[in-house]
Structure prediction request, 205 residues.
Amino acid sequence: MKKVFPVAIFFIAMLLPIQADFDHSAYLQENPATISADIFYPGFFKETDAINLENIVNEFKHRYEFFVGISNESRQKACFKTQNRINKWLSRLQQKPDQLPFKWTDDQLLFHRESPLNQMIKPRPSKPDDNCAYISYGDLQKDGRVFCRYHGPEPQSEFYQAHAHQFTETRPFITAYDVTEILIFLPFIMVIPVTWLIMKKFLAV
Ligand SMILES: [Zn+2]
Prediction:
């Protein structure tokens, strides 16, 4: 026990300078990365659009939970809320000159507890989901905003509105959502030919 204590102190002492020195110099320069076309089909939709048993069962489950009023807030909605909150703060900070020294941001600058940007937003944002991968577009000092590459941008956001057709075009024509809708409404659709057959038989007699 006596030996463990100094070792623990040593490791804590090693970690402290790392946490205290958050290097944000890269964010003061132009964003080195460019936005590629794959962002128009976010990973979340790639997973949930696929027509397989798991996704169709999940679609039925969501509808049942919504119907009986026990649905929890989805991770995607939590992510959209976080995007909105961060973007409102960015808009507020951008109104005052020289308040935002950063040209761009990603997860590190947004969510790291020692990051100066994380400390500017109140209450301080945290990642809504492990899959979330935030990135900014535009110049953060002027009118730049953020969105999540995994869940996609919030549908009312400027970025989504500006690229709505690209987001729509990249998704498949029929998804697990559509198959579930067809399965739900199939009995109602079947009523029409069955009624027609019964009527035909009835009229023939
Ligand atoms: Zn997300």
Notes: Residues 73-173 form one domain. Strands lie at 134-137, 145-148. The pocket of zinc ion is lined by residues 79, 128-129, 132, 148, 150-151 (CB under 6 Å).
